[in-house]
Amino acid sequence: MKSQLRNKSNRLTIVKTFLWLMLCFSFTASANSFNNPQAWLQKLSQAVSERNFNVSFVVLSQNADVEPYLWRHAVIDGVEVEHLNMLNGPGREVVRIGDRVSYFEPYTPPYTMRSSEINGPIPYQLMRDYENLSSSYNFVLVGRTRISGRAAQQIRIVSHDKSRYAYNLWLDQESGLMLKLDTIDLNGQVVEQLQVTSMQLTEVPDDYFSRIELSRLPKVVELGTTADTRLGWQINWLPAGMRVVKQNVRQLAPNERPIEYMMLSDGMVDISVYLQQLPNELNQRTALKHQSNTLFTMQRDSLAVTVIGKLPAKTADAIASSIGITPR
Amino acid sequence: MTQSKIEKLSSLIDGESQDEQLIDEISTDAELSKKWQSYHLTRDLMRKDAPELLNFDISAQVAKAIADEPSIVAPKPSRLESLPVIGNVIPLIKQSGQFAIAASVAAAVIIGVQQYNQPLPDEPYVVTNSTNHLGSLGVASGVSLEQTRPIQNQRSDAQEQRRRINALLRDHQNQMRLKSQPQQAEQLEEEKDVKGTNEKPTAEQK
Predict the structure, then answer these.
(1) Which residue from A minimizes the CA distance to B66?
(2) Is B69 in the A-facing interface, judged by CB distances under 8 Å?
């Protein structure tokens, strides 16, 4: 009896030491790799391009209804395939196979484009190109919490000059996938929320992808290369890290005056700037909200300037006001 | 705490020895008394006679965890006014509920008339086409014969603006989709243009 008890106490000591060692190891391991936000974003971009998953999420924005989505992703024979499905109303489906994205939407015939991202509610640039964002945004590791029933790591994303919306991002502790993304305006009010409601990571790709008939996908739209045109104006103030992506002159509809266009991007948000001659002048500055997009209009000389994008109205105003028009 | 002391403690708990000195030490040494507590708990667990509800004292740990938690500093509300370019900005309509409500009150009158006559595209944006004279015209004085014409004019104006805004929003959407189109010729041109404008020359074109 005695020796048995003695053995027990020895065993206890061994077990305890072992547990302590484990604890120490796990701490040092996490301290080495995941105490900076970049490591987490790296994990996110890896998970989002390499894992097979089915994710359901909802998007909430001001003045708009809840939008539920189903998002599937898989890697089949080294090719990324993806499916995004808007679940309410007439629906909107997007299928991506490698670098081809097919859009199926109501009221427009389906079409395919060459692109490596689905343009929609998912912040692709954040998930895959986070290095690109460092010139515009700061990343701060905040803490851990529970989101969608899973342990989550929170990261705050704030623009350097506080001229753009800030973001709160929660990543799944285990897989690194996005669980929640809050877009927050300058006053700390939530502008848009993306919340994952369910998430399944699987070893094998979803059955859905085997049902896609590649030959029946719409043909790729080949757009003629519309070279940039030098415009007779320039933007003299841009938020930190934002740059001009493209510029051209187009006609939005036949028999309409041409419109001059410039696209700005900081890697997180894309902003469109339009210059247009209107029959009657606008007599005031106007800021409209369309979901989380801001639409800002003002009159500059004889032209109407419109700035559209997910950015605060103040910043849109600053961009529009800084436009310098060189007389032709 | 030495190994021998732990062993002594273990044998004391097991009833193998009666060390008065050790008992005194347990009552004074916090670490030893903690060990005492945990050994008893372990023993109970091994014998499966632990109570159904274990009442661990976690309050100390919670307090410590709270103290260790990095403090979350809310970002200062930015003052874009301090930027040089924006000094002369007329305070805009606030981006809040107030603004939306005020605007919709003013716009509701006009839209009411419009909807009578023709169906409108169902775009869910907030209309802020609210000039003061329009608001007073619609709300205060009601419709009289003299006022029919101005309303007619304003209506087509508002409609025109709506149509224009819709077209721009749609175009913005399309442009975002088109953004990643590989267009070599354009890229080169772009870089030149970027340098031409105020932006610092960047070579990070994808």
Answers:
(1) A143
(2) yes
Residue B183 or residue A184, greater confidence: A184
- Alpha-carbon distance values, B128 to A48, A82, A288, A316 (Å): 40, 39, 7, 16
Q: Any idea which residue has 């910043």 for tokens?
A: A315
A260 has a pLDDT exceeding 50: yes
Please count the structural domains in chain B.
Answer: 2
pLDDT surpasses 50 at B133: no
Q: Is the pLDDT of residue A191 over 80?
A: yes
- Residue in chain A nearest B127 by alpha carbon: A288
Whether B165 contacts chain A with CB within 8 A: yes
Task: Read off the pLDDT band of B4 (50, 70, 90).
Answer: confident
- Name residue, tokens 């709270």: B66
Answer for the pair A304, A297: CB distance below 8 angstroms, yes or no.
yes
Note whether A287 contacts B93, CB cutoff 8 Å. yes
Supply the mean pLDDT for chain A.
85
pTM over 0.80: no
Of the residues A216, A241, A257, the one at which a domain ends: A216
From B125's Cα to the closest Cα of chain A, the distance in A is 5
A149 plus A254 within the same structural domain: no
B91 touches chain A (CB under 8 A): no
Domain assignment of residue B169, yes or no: yes
Give the confidence band of A310 by pLDDT, cuts at 50, 70, 90.
very high
Domains: count for chain A = 2
Contacts of B190 in chain A (CB under 8 A): 228, 244-247
**Phi, psi at residue B105, to the nearest 5°?**
-60, -45
Domain assignment of residue A264, given as a range: 233-325
In a domain? residue B184 = no
Nearest Cα residue in chain B from A291: B125
Contact call for B198 and A234, based on CB within 8 A = yes
Residue of B76, B92, B200, B204 best to disrupt the A interface, most CBs of A under 10 A: B92
B194 is a domain residue: no
ipTM over 0.90: no
CB within 8 Å: A313 and B92:
yes
